[in-house]
Design a protein that fits this description.
With 99 residues, the protein is an alpha+beta fold. It contains 3 helices and 4 strands. Helix 1 packs antiparallel against helix 3.
Length: 99
């Protein structure tokens, strides 16, 4: 059961916004390969503000995701494409509706 999540805010430098969008779209394939990631969403809030929300059944899955390929790609892109480090916040899920 989805019990834990991560809410990530990503602020792109304006000249790299399209590349950050592409990075997040491409990250879907990586998320699909993660057995412990139950749900994964990437979204855009504004021209330069993006986000990721994902959920996990347990802390082991959440920590595994934080050490995985999506997090590595974000951290690699951060110095060049982001105006600040990603704001990664763990959350506890209170209620979940999935298909």
């Amino acid at each position: 059961m989805n019990k834990l999540g991560l809410l990530v805010r990503i602020e792109a430098k304006p000249e790299y916004a399209d590349q950050v969008e592409a990075l997040l779209r491409d990250a879907l394939q990586l998320a699909q390969q993660e057995d412990h990631t139950v749900a994964w969403f990437a979204f855009r809030q504004s021209a330069t503000t993006f986000g990721i929300f994902d959920s996990f059944d347990d802390e082991e899955g959440r920590q595994g995701h934080l050490k995985g390929r999506i997090a590595a790609a974000l951290m690699e892109a951060a110095p060049t494409m982001l105006s600040e480090a990603p704001d990664i916040r763990p959350v506890d899920l209170l209620a979940v509706k999935l298909p």
